[in-house]
Design a protein that fits this description.
CATH topology: Rossmann fold
Bound molecules: flavin mononucleotide
Amino acid sequence: MRRILHIDASYSGEKSVSRALSQIFITAWQKFHPEALILYRDLGRFPVPYINKNWIAAIHSPPETHTPEMIQALEVSNPLLEEFLSVDCYVFGIPMYGFTIPATLKAYLEHLIRIGCTYEVDEAGVRGLVHGKKALFITSRGGNYSSGSPFGEDHQEPYLRTIFGSFGIQDVEFVNVNNLVLGDREKSMVAAQARLQTLAAHW
Ligand SMILES: Cc1cc2nc3c(=O)[nH]c(=O)nc-3n(C[C@H](O)[C@H](O)[C@H](O)COP(=O)(O)O)c2cc1C
């Protein structure tokens, strides 16, 4: 049975565009995979705590040396990692905040940066340890970040490609929905929905 992890990151609740679009994809995809198990995490409503010094100490030391604070840090973090590793694919709904991803998604991803578990590194570089998985990122933006745009640079897609690549997940797809505030919102939404419906049949 296929397992999918669906994650939303917007703080805007019911008004969120990225949330609506990720749900449109999931609903369409489910028709082709009725047997799939879908796990859902709403980082906008239920943010995960930041990693801290106890977490960093814990992941770099053997369990038998862990203090109660280090054990507590891993008790929060380990289920996030186990959930992430337990699925075959990921669907993210991500608004652009300050040219990049929301802080709550960054906080979540930091829990997954586990040496010897999601990646290994040496002088030759970073090698991902998570194989056979794929990710779809649906991003919503107020402006337009296509090449030559006056709005600035897109720090979402390059960052997400890099961190998922470092985990070993190179099979990534982006549906970047531009112009939702400063442009033709209706046109962007119609195009995004059409693309998501098409993708659902093949992804
Ligand atoms: C705090 C904040 C920061 C934002 N920063 C940007 C930005 O840097 N670039 C941009 O194009 N839009 C920016 N926007 C607009 C959002 O990306 C846009 O409204 C998007 O549709 C939000 O997605 P959501 O409806 O799923 O929350 C920002 C919005 C907020 C609330």
